[in-house]
Amino acid sequence: DASNELANDPPIQLLGRITTVKELLATGLFQNEEIIYTQKSGERKKLEGRIDGLFYRCSCHNEVMSASKFEKHAGCTSHNQNDRIMLWGEQSLHAIVAYLKSLGSAEEQLAAILELKKKNEDRKASRDQG
Ligand SMILES: [Zn+2]
Fold first, then answer.
1. Which pTM value belongs to this model?
2. CA of 105 to the centre of ligand 1 (A)
3. Distance (Å) from CA 93 to ligand 1 centroid
4. Alpha-carbon distance 117 to 33, whole Å?
5. How far is the CA of 115 from the centre of ligand 1 (A)?
6. Domain annotation covers residue 120
7. Per-residue pLDDT of the chain (130 residues; tens, 9 = 90+)
8. How far is the CA of 59 from the centre of ligand 1 (A)?
9. Which of 24, 72, 75, 101 has the fewest Cβ atoms nearer than 10 Å?
């Protein structure tokens, strides 16, 4: 029975619809996921890190910082850090929130988040296979 695998995890539920990056991070569903700071999608990465609570931890110093500090640490300045912080190097946090906002209910958002996470796991798995 495949459901046994998840038996120890509490059921995942969103407290409400996600409308901001802060709310996205507050779900905890992206805890410890890889991020990179880049000027725009496809460009060479400037800084790697991971999501840590509502903040970002750089991989070079293991230091937890805000989005604006993470950006400064990458040697950049902008007014839209969340457009440049890319989850898994794929999509900016802002783009993910915009996508989630286009969905109707918190349940649909949760399903979409789990789908994103699964796609990433699949990508990682196929990458690891060579
Ligand atoms: Zn650092």
1. 0.85
2. 37
3. 20
4. 10
5. 30
6. yes
7. 445 555 566 678 888 999 999 999 999 999 999 999 997 655 677 899 999 999 999 999 999 999 999 999 999 988 899 999 999 988 999 999 999 999 989 999 999 999 999 999 999 899 888 6
8. 6
9. 75
